[in-house]
Structures
1.
Amino acid sequence: MNAEIKPAQGKLGVLTVGLGAVSTTFIAGVISIRNGTDLPIGSYSQLGTIRLGKRTEKRHPLVRDFVPLADLKDIAFGAWDIFEDNAYESAIHAGVLDEYRHLHRIKAELEKIKPMKAVFNPNYVKKLHGEYVKNIDNKWDQAQALREDIRNFMRENDCSRAVMIWCASTEVYIEPGAVHETLEAFEKGLKENNPSISPSMIYAYASIMERVPFSNGAPNLACDCHALEELANKMNVPIAGKDFKTGQTLMKTILAPGLKARSLGIRGWFSTNILGNRDGEVLDDPESFKTKEVSKLSVLENILEPERHPELYKELYHKVRINYYPPHGDNKESWDNIDITGWLGYQMQIKINFLCRDSILAAPVVLDLALFLDLAQRSNMSGIQEWLSFYFKSPQTAKGLPPQHDIFKQLMKLENTLRHLKGEDLITHLGLDYYQEFIEA
Ligand SMILES: NC(=O)c1ccc[n+]([C@@H]2O[C@H](COP(=O)([O-])OP(=O)(O)OC[C@H]3O[C@@H](n4cnc5c(N)ncnc54)[C@H](O)[C@@H]3O)[C@@H](O)[C@H]2O)c1
């Protein structure tokens, strides 16, 4: 298929829910990159290349030259937060980017990005006390107010399109229930102030209603429920979630497929983290941590498939801990101890000590998601965008479909989707055909 992809004309509004560490690192990063002072390191959409055709054809364009993505110069930034700090103040508070190396020289631009008043519910984020919130009690009315914010933002910033990305705090763990099952039940629930509808769902609803693609960077449900999937399909809007894949889980989904590929057994995988930013503080609440834990635990089981390989993985003991440790700030430190089994049952251990910077890893993910969701919208793709699983710890899938966690399969799916959109051959890596050509030559 060579899909009709509408050109990326005009400005793209990137609206983040939350103007905290991840959002400000993303915004300040994009501004620095378009000013020419920095490179978009970590962004596949900006630095990645894609092979087209046979290996022998030597066609490897940059992804951004191959598919028509929005130019970074055409992005306008908007956000909501429960604190009134502008993007400069918030970035200083987050302490991720160096004040003199990065923030000071783009201070004027960052100061112009002021959050809109949030839709917030302290029952869903117990560690924070929002001050800068909409004074509206009814959830339906809150959704209408967010829709108005989106329209106002797009008009004031002269945007032809927008995307919304949840970069706000992790909400407490809830299971989808009857109110999340159908669009009708959900809209009734909004009007009746159903307590099971969280702020992230209200933002997602407002976004989709405005035909603005929605993505969820945290592990709470947001658009990951049937009602909002139904809405996304009805409105012809792409959605994707959930929980940005960075840090420890990124490492896990790189390493586990490799160990499995070599049929090495794994008896235990113990993962622990310390981090001290506001995200860490929110995750210190057991109910928010539960949401994160569920998201982090699902990964290994899916990659290793213990039911298919009981001799290698049936004993697997997987444990994940996150501890709030303020002195480390955004510089998360994680330790993994992996007990693996080799030939004739001999035991070995792998130790990983990753001193990462959470928001430095998450910022390019926000950029790629914004650009690819906008591409999806212009390519007339709607509903769950499973080809963006590459970016998530808990990829959202259609009911009954298991998610794909293996990062290499995720990348193949992403690349093949881009080839498919442009009418290029999908790549199977078989290569037998051109071996024959080489032999005959
Ligand atoms: N950094 C990473 O590597 C990473 C990876 C995966 C997921 N995440 C998730 O991304 C999210 C953002 O992380 P962060 O480090 O920027 O956190 P942060 O605490 O610095 O920023 C979150 C912001 O959201 C605001 N907020 C909370 N509820 C809100 C609401 N209802 N409406 C508007 N704003 C609201 C908070 O005031 C805060 O400023 C978290 O949920 C985190 O779990 C981060």
2.
Amino acid sequence: MNQGRVVAGLVVTLIGVLAFWASMQMLFTDILSMDWALWTILLVIGSVGIGVGPVVAIVAYVKSTVEQQTWAQTEPQQVYSLPQRCKECGSEIGLHHLEWIGPDEARCPYCSAAVPVRRTGF
Ligand SMILES: [Zn+2]
């Protein structure tokens, strides 16, 4: 949805740039016989497109980024908590060094003592 708005904003910007560029071309190449009404319309389209297009694209882009972050936060998360050191041998233990013997049970890699692991979901 928002990707479409980003593209629409960029297209409006592009049209604005082209209209502005066309009006400048008219001003510098054909000033004697130029159609001032058409020139005014092109300049207005150019100014509005350049002014509004990027704003639409940026707002849509930021909105879609915020929506993605909100979606990520609503995913269920889980947290493992374990002691910093093995209470048997005193070795520092990390989540990746543990020997897992069950979904919530692990052993110290140095002395094989059981390490209490708690898993919390939120
Ligand atoms: Zn140990």
